[in-house]
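Let us practice reading a record.
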Amino acid sequence: MKLIKKIQSHKVLKLLTNRYILIFLVFCIWMLFFDENSYINHLKYDDEIEELENSIEFYNQEIEHNKKMIEALNDPEQLEKYAREIYRIKKEDETLYLIEYDTIQ
């Protein structure tokens, strides 16, 4: 009997058997692991947000690059150069020779 009373009088055990503490612990465990807005889900959402921010940055850089390209193509000489290099457009009296290098050794 003395051993049981001694165990029951222990401070930590008294604290853990308190119903408010038990309810609080169950609530914390539920919120950290099982709830829809759990800490684990927040970590996943943070990773997804970071990935989306990186893609936003990439597309903003692409937009700036395209704006510069559009400004450069407003010049007729640059437009002709671009059309000749990319789309292989030629004038009527020209002959176009394509030189392809064999990269297979």
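A brief commentary: The chain has a mean pLDDT of 86.
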